[in-house]
Write a structure and sequence with these properties.
6 helices; 30% helix; five-stranded mixed β-sheet
Amino acid sequence: MSEGCFRLRVNGRDHAVTAPADTPLLTVLRNDMGLNGPKYGCGAGQCGACTVLLDGKAARACVVRVDVAAHHAITTLEGLARDGVPDPVQQAFVTAQAAQCGYCLNGMVMTLRAFLNAVPNPDEAALREALRYNLCRCGTHVEIMHAACIAAGLPPNILTGLHPQPPSPPPGESP
């Protein structure tokens, strides 16, 4: 496919990019713009590591073509902070220490930001559903859900499913 020039609005700034129309947005963001928040995970839109916001909605940048992205406002992880102050979702991940290897964090943060834009007062079940298609390979799910609850403004006691209680002894037995 021949190259074209595309104007992209990324993190509030305009950029001109020359690339084939079918180039994945992720490639342009990382290779041409040096934005390393979105990660290459699967290349098939399945894992969520490459998630960005297109007009405030979560989109998998590895399967969004640059010619399609040119018609939308694009926000990456780098564009969430304002004047050096982290977005509340980013801050919640810091507060909850919800990172291990960090590879999935871009997708978790961006998906959660898009979800909270659309559903500002979710319950824990809605948070779990919103994040269910973002993969974490190192098992930081408990901390990620804690961060999601913090970002959503849920009280600490809402974390009932995160720290299961030991089973009760059978009737008639003492603990």
